[in-house]
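Q: What structure does this chain adopt?
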Amino acid sequence: MLQYVSTKGGVAPVDFETAVLRGFAEDGGMYVPREIPQVSEEHLLEWSNLSFNDLAFEILSLYIDNSIIPSNELKALISKSTGTFSHPEIVPVVPLDKKSDHFVMELFHGPTLSFKDVAMGFLINTMDYLLARKGETASLLIATTGDTGPAAAYASCGKKTIDCWVLYPRGFISEEQERQMTTLGEPNVYAVAVENCSDGGDDLDVVIAQMFEDQELVENLRLSSVNSINWCRVMFQAIHYFYGYFRTVDKTGDSIVFSVPTGAFGNLFAGYLAREMGLPVQSFICANNRNATVHRVLETSRFSRKKLKQTPSNAIDIALPYNYWRFLYFVSGQDSEAIKSWMSDYQDQGYVAFDEAMMKGIKHGFCSVAVSDEDTLSTIAETYRADSYLLDPHGSVAVAAANALIPSFDPGTKVISLLTAHPAKFPDITRQALKCEGNLPSTGLHDSIEKVKDQFQQLRLCDCSKLKSALIHGMSEEKANNN
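A:
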């Protein structure tokens, strides 16, 4: 049976069920598989024509033992999780320009129009399945900078085993994203707008980390997490890299490039995981906005924290890409002592300096671009003008980064830019980019966004300085009322 260990090495290995239900490891690390399953060339050939759901089953079966989730139940969970998607391919890949080898993968056909739906539905359905079998409940504690929260809130609706507490920094996300959380009207979903977050979602992550460090509190409130800290999320996201690869290359075995808009590094770590499994990826383009957290590592050999800047691509406004610790764990040869030392350095001095040998591993198969706000907006305008294709601001960061680096790859290299949200979630950015005052293009609208504009919002409001105590009080009160 594949076991899961903490990146900090301070707890005993656990099975998949324990890793998923705990979210955080008890020592403050993140769960990862003890070893990454390997996929042969024969597997790639066998999988090349599979549907998304069938491919998902093959990949997930490598990480989830049949004794924990039997095959028939796993297939049912996958079908349930993708059944809400509006496109038959789940994550279609389309050419951005029919004259080039640049493609886009549309990851936004789920119920909340975000790539977070791809993995969140499966994670929460899986948690519900495992909790119901054990006769237990959980309180999910989630920080969001725009897309994780709506996806988690929607997927949690009506679940008897789950209460979902979604925290978001007020003023840092669009009204459309906020309304996706605050108009659900479900008694087990609690949207919490947090004011005075100078570092946006990173301030919320600090509070959540503090709560998970208190094991007595975790037990009493039955806390768990479905941010990309949860292994199940990044594991499932590896699937769309395989799927996009098979839909794009001329023949199995050809290499490919992915351009990924990067915030917390969860989606990009999933790509790294796919490559380590055996997917032929030549390079990943880390597409940062001007917060440039991962770009700075490649440029300066330092993993450092800077003051957060608000940008048009708000969901990747992240000062600390916490999944980067998972990446560093594997690049370092699964060195838990190094991870603990680096995390301590980061906490104490605000940066980690890497030596030449470590940087060689970090740079292997990775390149990066920091995309300015101006380039984000101009890429939306230029792509719409040239190809009649409307990008959201996060997809625009990926496309802009790809456009900057495509000349450095061999001619004929296939490049896929990941589009992580529907532009309907960002009408103000679209108007700014296209310089239009009136009606948006039809592709910039979506029925699910329009129908909640006239509905009441239900939210709880809290100052960031009082958030931890308010959460403990509120969650304890709801727990008492539900018992």
